[in-house]
Amino acid sequence: MNVTEGAIDGIPLIVVEGDLDQSSKQVARDAVNEILRGPYPPQGLLIDVTDCTFLDSGGLSVLLSALAQLPADGWLGIVGASAGANRVLTFTGFLDNDKVRFFSSLSDAVGSLARERKMSQTQ
Question: Which of 6, 7, 24, 39 is the S-S candidate for 1 at Cβ 3.0 to 4.6 Å?
Answer without folding.
Answer: 24
